[in-house]
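Project standup — Tuesday

K.O.: blocked on the structure for the chain from last sprint. Re-posting the sequence here as requested.
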Amino acid sequence: MTTERTLSVPGLAYGGDYNPEQWPEEVWAEDMRLMREAGVTMVSVGIFSWALLEPAEGTYDFSRMDRLLDLLRENGIAADLATPTAAPPAWFFRSHPEALPVDRDGRRLSYGSRQTFCASSPAYREAALRITRTLGERYAEHPAVVMWHVHNEYGCHNAACYCDTSAETFRRWLRERYEDLSDLNHAWGTTFWSQWYYDWDEILPPRATGAVPNPTHQLDWRRFCSDELLSLYTAERDALRVAAPSTPVTTNFMVMENFDALDYWRWAPELDIVSNDHYLMSADPASEIDVALSGDLTRSLAGGPWLLMEHSTGAVNWQPVNRAKRPGELRRNALAHVAHGADGIAYFQWRAAEAGAEQWHSAMLPHAGTESRIWHDVVRLGGDLKALAEVRDSIGTAEVAVVWDWNARWALELPSQPSSDLRYLDLVRSWYEPLWRSNHAVDFVRPDADLSHYRLVLVPSLYLVDDAGAANLTGYAERGGTLAVGFHSGAVDENCHVRLGGYPGAFREALGVRSDELFPLLPGETAALGGQVPPGATGTLWSERLYLKGAEAIAGYTDGPLGGCAAVTRHAYGTGSAWYLATHPDADTLATLLDRMCSEAGVVAPLAGPPGVEIVRRRGEDADYVFLIDHAGDGAELPVPPGTTELLTGKRIQGSVSVPAGDVAVVRVPRPDEAGAA
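H.V.: unblocked you, prediction finished:
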């Protein structure tokens, strides 16, 4: 029998990381009072408390944690209790210096920070499981504990270790992946540069070397590192399940711009509740798009609602310039995450640190205390989330899917590509952005996902794809779907072997095109486009000599060495159609093409609003919840159907809803039969 593990906190959870060990205990009572004032319902505790919980090997002091959990329970605040394994104590490394990580240049790093351990270290695993089992046994029945929080941001600082222990574990992983050495040699193409292996012990991690390392070696290393960290998570999770079989377990993902270490498609099924950390990049002029993309990707990983485990009330401390959020941005960010599927909102951290590496990171209770804009916004958000309680468990409504694959991302960004300017996330975001601006709902999917309920499937970048994934995508078009594929996709198989016979490799037949030579564009270089595209259309990053093999040209190059060649094509394939973009069109042209694809595919027209107003729909059992978020700061007035209620104010709406400048409205739209009854 399967045990269902759900979060027992009512409504939308609200809180953040709580680190009371940083403060005298007389501060705790004030924390409880202010948490109640802010509407906090759940906090994460113990994340970095290993050194205090286990001051010496096998010697424990739970007195502080006992008092804390009891205090939270008395104040009606739930605990997401963490295993503190992201930061082993100094005594551990003095006893086990071999557990410290080694970088690719062979330097052994020191302790004195966090996540300074080798994921393959037996000593680390033993110590981590010991503290995990002890915590689980002690607090399994504590009424405050509603969820286990394993570790913290796996791979954030130690995604790879190149030590001899890691090398030995890597070889074991390779033995499981390949039947024998001849299979590995074939997969890695080791006849090139005399890299053939005659003994498993000859294989090392891809350490620093004099020239370009073998690409498949590097790719398998990325896969191994993700799996090795995953094995640490599942080991801790399983230990907690022995102690508390019905308590849900999570760990915080990092689906954000500068992190690509883990294959979260493999990780997500191992979590009872998927949670994510997300931070704005100060240099991003449209960071609200990254909020939406991250939320949609996390919702897709979860297969439904998820938890935002960390974000910031204001500035972070780890970027070159750490700016404060603009007025209203805290609220817009948080409610945008809810719009894109979050059933809980949490911050790092509750009280801004006085000392330590993150002392300049913002918090729910800032250095300035309650006489601050941040505190005012935090209290207001608590009221908002309480008003939105009924939104919990509602789902997305996407008819458009975007293919996302970590293996393809890793492979595309390996050295010695035709262009070093290709960035996977940039390519995906460039296709996502016009859909976001048009208020089209989007799901992210694996290449081998069930695509039957989508009207349009987009493949902005899929350099690497295995045969099953390619067959699934092309079969979708053949059976009546509309498929669009970006340049340099389908080029190699799962072993980074080029698919011979011409480009775009695995997708040639379905796309009805063939290319024999690639012409990547130089930085700043553009190629003029003509045809069924807006005047002045251009392509950047990429071009290729394309021959039509059944496809029609939608646009072509009008100058340069490929003048007269097709650049954008459409092919009737089976009962569906397949588009190919053999360049990277400018933003207006790409938006125009995607709008045409949506129309052709019969994608339901989204709710319309003025530019800069994001409109997102979540579907509940009896009603839809429509989020209206004004990022432009101009305000808006939008029509709504009869029987609509604006949830943040509780007002019944007649005819239209007003969104104040830079603000948010959330309307409950009943089903037609319910509206009629009303």
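K.O.: great, moving the ticket to review. The CA atoms of residues 434 and 591 lie 5 Å apart. The longest strand covers residues 566-573.
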